[in-house]
Amino acid sequence: MILAIDLGNSNIVIGGIDNTRTYFVERVTTNHGKTELEYAVNIKDIMEIHNYSLSEIEGAIVSSVVPPLTEVVITAVKKITGKTPLLVGPGMKTGLNIKMDNPKTVGSDLIVDAVAALKDYPSPIIIIDMGTATTMSVIDQAGNYTGGIIFPGLRVSLDSLSSRAAQLPYIGLNNPTKIIGKNTIDCMRNGILYGNAAMIDGVIDRMEEELKASASIVATGGLAAAVVPLCRHEIHYDDALLLKGLLILYEKNNQETL
Length: 258
Description:
Layout (H helix, E strand, L loop, with lengths): L1 E6 L3 E7 L4 E8 L6 H14 L9 E6 L2 H15 L4 E2 L20 H13 L4 E6 L2 E7 L5 E8 L1 H11 L19 H28 L4 E5 L3 H4 L8 E2 L3 H13 L5
Parallel strand pairs: 1-4, 4-5, 6-9, 9-10
Antiparallel strand pairs: 1-2, 2-3, 6-7, 7-8
């Protein structure tokens, strides 16, 4: 298997994957204060929890939208596996045609998601990734990455609401049973979950109008599982989409590392 790691602003996704299956997917909190050793221990502990040894790792690949931590995590992987991970970025072969004003500014996580989606779904495709920000990326009928939309993430919106209104509590995100809340907590939870679901549904409608075609729709990210069931469109939820994309890129760019 390969070790696939995605550094996000809120969480770091750590997974083991090969062409037969996904062996494990876990998330740890992104912490700028952690050392290389601490991240190395995190990775090692995750593998031990799932009963895999470091000797089973044949290679590794990292994508990152957190530049200050990129080298820290790469060094952590080298420390425990003895292998230098590939890094998603300029110069890497992706097979993706990016039709943006400045293709170099597209986040590596969005590129990885798109690469995976193109393999598993017919174009056009709308990819929803719900993390610190919610992104909706569009692949057109010809398979080109043609743009998208970014709005504040579900948890960011909820935490902002709680922190700025003295009488509103911090709440969890368990699924609501109906949209009309009968107390403050239910009203907040419903507003965030149904509000995001309605926003996603509305944006999908407008994107499909612009594409002049119905799209395959796939969602991923730690928060998507709470929202996708509330959407009215048929949305395929794939928690391992990013890991699948990292595996594809690893195989496209595989080379001996020192």
